[in-house]
Amino acid sequence: MGCYGEDTIQTLNIDKLAAQGALFDMAFTSTASCSASRSVIYTGLHAHENGQHGLDNNRHHFTTFDHVETAPKLLRDLGYLTGIIGKVHVGPEAGSNHSFLRLDVRITPSHYTPADVKIPPFLSDVPGVRLELAEYYRSIHRLDQGVGLILAALENARLANDTLVVFMSDNGPPFVNSETTLYDAGVRLPLIIRRPEGDPDQGQAPGTLIFGFHTFHEVTNYCPTRYMRTRSFKYHRNIARKLDFPFAADLYGSLSWEGLRNSDRPMLGSRTLKSHIRRPPEELYDLEADPQEVRNLATEPEFAGQLKDMRDALEAW
After folding, report:
1. Could you tell me which residues come within 8 angstroms of residue 269 by beta carbon, excluding any fewer than 6 positions away?
2. Of the listed 17, 34, 187, 223, which one is catalytic?
């Protein structure tokens, strides 16, 4: 998105929203999988507290506990009409569905090609990656037009000055080494908040700690990793380190994954494919010197104190 420094994809509506509100450059999800992440947004509780341990699915019954109240329910109890358009992917469902015409002629298709894309540092430049990135660019362009339609509807209804608008994602892009991993490519998010009749805000975030964990994606997978993050360091505890690191089935079937794993030297950006799948017991990264989290400092003596502090904090959490 342009407001975050992207100059290839046109996101004029999201950029306008960012100019009118507060843009956060250090926003994170506690887990890089959609159902669990959305449950945290709706409830304010980590997934292991609200019950939505992984993807909402009838087979393994991952769902929010019945006693957990969500923000939409609390708002509805106060008299607001609440609803959601599009993907829900959390449970249990409440209320009924209303059908709408699914074709919107106001959405203008974009025409990004594989040659147009920029390869992000967490991926390598292979044809499958370029093809799927071009599709991803087109989806972001459609998203921006959808944001514009919502903002225009608020203006036309004279509700813009009475509405809190929040724009965010639930996890990183749908690529290996991003979605369903706890590296920053999977957990760092866009976040824009425009308050009613508010001027754009600027401020300094407190030096808080961020915690999160890898969730079950499929019924056969497991919960292998915990992480914590400060502004300078990132710590990963790989609980299931003797097992291959799992990622979502749809990523296994992607063109980008096929291209990456079949390349002459399989790499995910600067990370070897082997090191992505086979994890050590602990990982520690200096995010200022190594933002892609490639050089593991966990076994280096000079970082033993930092490692212990973050290990203790994660265990206490």
Report:
1. 120, 121, 122, 123, 124, 177, 292, 294
2. 34
DSSP state of 200: P
34 among known catalytic residues: yes
Contacts 24+ apart (CB under 8 A), 86-92: 87/34, 88/56, 89/34, 89/35, 89/38, 89/55, 89/56, 90/35, 90/38, 90/39, 90/42, 90/52, 90/56, 90/63, 90/64, 91/52, 91/56, 91/62, 91/63, 91/64, 92/63, 92/64, 92/66
* C-alpha–C-alpha distance, residues 239 and 313, integer Å: 16
Question: Whose CA is closest to 94, among 114, 79, 72, 112?
Answer: 72
**Mean pLDDT, the chain, whole residue set:** 85
Angle between helices 127-156 and 12-20 (to 10 degrees): 60
Within 10 angstroms of residue 201's Cβ, the number of other Cβ atoms is 11
CA–CA separation, 179 vs 247, rounded Å?
8
Task: Provide the pLDDT for residue 45.
Answer: 87
**Pairing of the two strands 282-286 and 233-238:** antiparallel
DSSP 8-class letter at 211: E
pLDDT-wise least confident of 78-92, 115-129, 135-149, 172-186: 78-92
- Segment 284-293 mean pLDDT: 96
Domains of the chain: 2-83+109-316 (3.40.720.10)
